[in-house]
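#structure-requests
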Amino acid sequence: MTITGSNQGRGVDKILGDVRERLADLPLPRGYSIEYTGDTQEMIESGIFLLKAFGIAAGLILVILVIQFNSVLLPAIIFFSVILSMIGVMWGLLAFQMRFGVIMTGVGVISLAGIVVNNAIVLIDCALQRKAAGLGRTWAWSCWVRFSPRSWAWRSSAACS
């Protein structure tokens, strides 16, 4: 038997939670079972795939960074910035009361992680170049150099809107 319905603006995860709660105490005849398929099954499979893809990508990036920087500390700093960006995503979702959609949000988080890694690599490289040149305040100056174009971009956007 197949049962279908309309979600009326509610998320699949909320509806499934309600259905599981109501059917938890339902006595089933011998040989009968309840399976949750369709969108729920696809959502779980997609989430598992994205988690595996993110893990493989993070592992490969970590190996490449350790080889490139010839250090474990600098890639650890880079990956710490990725963790901070994911915490920011979760805070943003909570602040705007949005659901963590497996596909859209998951792909967005993976894309954000790539941007954060790229920015951290450029920041660390800038600091290492200043240090090699014998210039002082390498980290502070590198942060300012990396932040300055972005601050002008958002200032001009705010002024024009």
